[in-house]
């Protein structure tokens, strides 16, 4: 973790490392529970482990799944080969830390997107020796458990973890259950060569309660949609290897991964997909005095058998669609760092990305076809350290995001026919970023301001009529400007205040239809604060999430949601060495408010596009290490 934090500090832009102890007293269900105090990350719950996850407006109007962010586990991407993904497969209860690299700062992970990358890192036998047990219980019949064990044997170490989770959810038809396994084995082959093998297995069952009207959110937030018994069931296996050659000044990492996933997803129809994604990656880092560089690349290839059936109460009816899908995403990246004088580092780099999407329809009136993309995105930056504890940084970079299968092939017409949208193009942006991070006495901070000028932003909305030709389009020009700020004040060992503030000004620029309207979904301001009183032996931490004014729900800017404030509390106590109790209370006042939004062109009172904030809940549990 210390090495990861040093790497983050050497990056001239928005980065941070979230340690497990920063969220250990929470009942950890989703990435929202772990990233609440990571500056610049916008998270809103939908249900269960499904959350809105956006960095700098990435995937802004995607009302499901995720786009614009590279998610990794132990350095290997879990995104499918078309770069879209289900973040439910990342269970943060296992992680030792999360490494967050916003925007072009994620170059070292082979990411060239607007949002950047988040890497979840599991422990090793060296980091987490012995037996670790955790049990959570609480509202909505929630039960959650974790058992892990790690150790060493000569030149080898090993770590395995098993978790189980069940809950009725805070809405009707939102129950979930999961069983997950993660493990790794490392081996020192010599003084130079080390290798580590990873395995992950997931069995996830999640009922989908659907979106609500604004009236239902504010008066009946527990309401769920039972039509079609909608759900998202995932069975997946991930295998990977990472091998390191360390020659002192030069270090080479190489690896390969295999992801196999079954998705059973009854919604408007039953989506039944079986996918296999495989890839390889390599990165070389070299340091020689005042000059250092990184050179790397990644190749991902995926094949999916995609079928759809008539939804008969959540079961397969008649087969309506059958296709073979193939995707490829590859990149090569490089970065050079030079220190012309002590305390000043100049950085230049770039990433070349190549993408390919192909579909062969076997059954239905859907269209076969293929599209290919390629983009080069340079990056320039400077890092200034006037003192060892204070940094100033700035960078200017380009980003590019390729459309995935759901954007390349869209349903149009009535009855809908899945058609190749050959006019869809990659989203690109130039982003300027400036900021500072550091510590001075009892105060530490991390503040970044950015301004991204986008072309062809991939925007998605829920169509209001059958006359709309497609649900995803390329906007002409848009602009994302914002501030990502984190502040921590620790005047004594028993008192700490930490808070984050996000300012997000996203809007069209002289659009032919929407003028300079604000983009929907993300509010202008979000503030989260926590005051922790006490020590590791006994502590209590009240917290606040405040949205002064809600976001727009539509592109026409005709409907804006209301702001809200949510109060919560966590607490922890040490019973004896190695055994801790914890408490997590959410939305103490049971505030009813709109959290996430699936944007539309023009919202009305009948628009079922809203998800409520989490209802009042109380969880507690015990952690033990032997």
Which terms would index this structure?
single chain; 4 helices; 22-stranded antiparallel barrel; 626 residues; mainly beta
Task: Summarize the model shown.
The chain is mainly beta and 626 residues long. It contains four helices and 35 strands.
Describe this structure in words.
This protein is mainly β. About 5% of the residues lie in helices and about 60% in strands. It is built from four helices and 35 strands. It has a 22-stranded antiparallel β-barrel. A five-stranded mixed sheet has the order 1-6-7-4-5, with helices on one face. Strands 2-3 form a two-stranded antiparallel ribbon. A hairpin with a 2-residue loop joins strand 2 (about 40-45) and strand 3. The longest helix is centred in the first third of the chain and has 8 residues, at about 1-10. The model has no long low-confidence stretch (mean pLDDT about 95).
Question: How is the topology of this model organized?
Answer:
Elements: H1 2-9, E1 15-19, H2 31-35, E2 41-47, E3 50-55, E4 69-73, E5 76-77, E6 97-102, E7 116-121, E8 130-138, E9 142-153, E10 156-167, E11 176-188, E12 193-207, H3 214-219, E13 231-246, E14 250-266, E15 270-288, E16 291-312, E17 315-341, E18 344-363, E19 369-387, E20 390-401, H4 405-408, E21 409-412, E22 417-420, E23 427-440, E24 443-455, E25 458-460, E26 472-474, E27 477-492, E28 495-508, E29 525-534, E30 538-547, E31 564-576, E32 579-586, E33 594-597, E34 610-612, E35 617-625
Number of strands: 35
Distance between the termini: 22 Å
- What's the story with the biggest beta sheet? 22 strands, antiparallel, barrel
Q: Could you estimate the helical fraction of the residues in percent? A: under 10%
Radius of gyration: 24 Å
């Amino acid at each position: 973790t210390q090495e990861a934090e040093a790497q983050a500090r050497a990056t001239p832009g928005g980065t941070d490392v979230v340690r497990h102890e920063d969220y250990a007293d929470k009942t950890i269900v989703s990435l929202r529970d772990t990233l609440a105090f990571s500056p610049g990350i916008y998270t809103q719950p939908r249900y269960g482990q499904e959350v809105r996850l956006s960095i700098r407006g990435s995937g802004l109007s995607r009302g499901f799944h995720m786009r614009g962010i590279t998610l990794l586990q132990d350095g290997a991407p879990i995104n499918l080969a078309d770069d879209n993904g289900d973040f439910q497969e990342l269970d943060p209860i296992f992680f030792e830390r999360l490494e967050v690299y916003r925007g072009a700062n994620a170059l070292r992970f082979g990411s060239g997107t607007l949002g950047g990358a988040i890497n979840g890192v599991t422990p090793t036998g060296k980091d987490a020796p012995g037996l670790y047990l955790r049990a959570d219980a609480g509202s909505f019949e929630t039960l959650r458990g974790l058992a892990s064990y790690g150790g060493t044997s000569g030149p080898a170490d090993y770590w395995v973890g098993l978790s189980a989770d069940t809950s009725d959810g805070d809405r009707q038809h939102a129950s979930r259950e999961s069983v997950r396994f993660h493990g790794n084995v490392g081996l020192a082959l010599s003084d130079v060569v080390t290798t580590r093998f990873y395995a992950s297995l997931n069995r996830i069952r999640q009922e989908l309660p659907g979106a609500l009207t604004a009236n239902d959110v504010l008066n009946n937030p527990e309401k769920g949609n039972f039509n079609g018994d909608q759900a998202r069931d995932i069975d997946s296996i991930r295998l990977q290897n990472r091998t390191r050659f360390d020659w002192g000044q030069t270090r080479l990492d190489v690896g390969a991964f295999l992801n196999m996933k079954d998705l059973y997803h009854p919604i408007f129809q039953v989506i039944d997909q079986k996918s296999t994604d495989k890839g390889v990656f390599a990165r070389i880092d070299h340091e020689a005095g005042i000059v250092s560089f990184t050179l790397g690349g990644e190749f991902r290839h995926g094949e999916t058998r995609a079928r759809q059936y008539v939804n008969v109460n959540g079961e397969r009816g008649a087969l309506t669609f059958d296709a073979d899908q193939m995707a490829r995403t590859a990149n090569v990246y490089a970065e050079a760092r030079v220190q012309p004088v002590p305390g000043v580092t100049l950085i230049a780099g770039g990433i070349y990305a190549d993408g390919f999407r192909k579909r062969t329809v076997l059954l239905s009136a859907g269209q076969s076809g293929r599209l290919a993309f390629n983009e080069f995105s340079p990056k320039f930056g400077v890092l200034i350290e006037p003192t060892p504890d204070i940094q100033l940084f700035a960078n200017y970079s380009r980003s590019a995001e390729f459309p995935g299968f759901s954007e390349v092939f869209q349903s149009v017409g009535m009855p809908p026919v899945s058609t190749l949208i050959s006019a869809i193009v990659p989203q690109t942006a130039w982003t300027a970023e400036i900021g500072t991070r550091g510590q001075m006495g009892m105060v530490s901070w991390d503040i970044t301001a950015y301004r991204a000028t986008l072309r062809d932003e991939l925007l998605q909305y829920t169509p209001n009529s059958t006359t709309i030709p497609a649900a995803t389009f390329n906007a002409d020009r848009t602009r994302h400007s914002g501030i990502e700020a984190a502040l921590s004040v620790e005047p004594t060992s028993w008192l700490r205040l930490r808070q984050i503030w996000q300012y997000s000004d996203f809007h069209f620029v002289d659009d032919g239809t929407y003028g300079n309207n604000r983009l929907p979904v993300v509010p202008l301001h979000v503030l989260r604060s926590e005051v922790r009183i006490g020590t590791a032996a006994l502590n209590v931490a009240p917290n606040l999430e405040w949205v002064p004014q809600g976001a727009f729900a539509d592109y026409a800017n005709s409907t804006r949601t209301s702001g809200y404030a949510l109060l919560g509390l966590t607490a922890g106590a040490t019973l004896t060495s190695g055994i801790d109790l914890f408490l997590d209370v959410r939305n103490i006042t049971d505030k009813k408010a709109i959290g996430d939004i699936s944007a539309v062109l023009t919202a009305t009172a009948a628009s079922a596009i809203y998800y409520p904030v989490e209802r009042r809940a109380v969880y507690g549990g015990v952690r033990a290490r032997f």
